Amino acid sequence: MMVASGAANARRILELGPGTGAFTEALARVMPDEARYLGLELNKTFVDRLHARFPSMRFECCCAQTFDFNTAEFDEGFDVIISGLPWTAFPEELQKAILGNVLPHLARGGRFVTFAYVGFHKLSAGQHFRRLLGNLLPNLTKTEVVWSNLPPAFVYVGSHEALASMKS
Ligand SMILES: C[S@@+](CC[C@H](N)C(=O)[O-])C[C@H]1O[C@@H](n2cnc3c(N)ncnc32)[C@H](O)[C@@H]1O
Fold first, then answer.
1. Rounded distance, CA 88 to CA 25, Å?
2. What share of the chain is helix, strand, coil (3-state, %, to 5)?
3. 58-78 pLDDT tens trace
4. Structural domain count of the chain
5. What CATH number is associated with residue 144?
6. Residue 168 located in a structural domain
7. Which of the listed residues 14, 16, 37 should we mutate to test ligand 1's pocket, taking the one with most ligand atoms within 8 A of CB?
8. Best residue among 20, 24, 42 to mutate for probing ligand 1, ranked by most atoms within 8 Å of CB
């Protein structure tokens, strides 16, 4: 996820669902010192722990689909949007609502990255999500499967250049 996102060269990073902080910890390691980070997490217990563990990073306790980016002081958008959200467990309306709220804030040249577990991506929710993401980010690619991950997974990567408007 770190390599695919290009976080090592990012100036502004948005993480969706940082949870227990596995990606956050990796981001803190690789992102440039001057980079700014915003994490949107709906679970207050996780947010309190993230604040304590990463005091220089910004976390908001909120839903990614309703967060008001006008209050976020990230006017130029994000170079990287990295997601740990369990997309295939979400109904299609929620997938659309989250992507519709965050993707307009992907900066020109920016990348959206999210992962999928091998096998789950073949289920109908996984196929729906892949189609939705592919419609919004027409140049969507996927990485090789990381077989050493448990369960094995791969990463979807989409870039701003091909950002399409949300279809209803
Ligand atoms: C798979 S878990 C977190 C994965 C994360 N990389 C970790 O290390 O824990 C997904 C996280 O997304 C959060 N979440 C679920 N729906 C959300 C939403 N609509 N907005 C923001 N966070 C959400 C959950 O509370 C959970 O912490």
1. 24
2. 40, 25, 35
3. 999 999 999 999 887 888 899
4. 1
5. 3.40.50.150
6. no
7. 16
8. 42
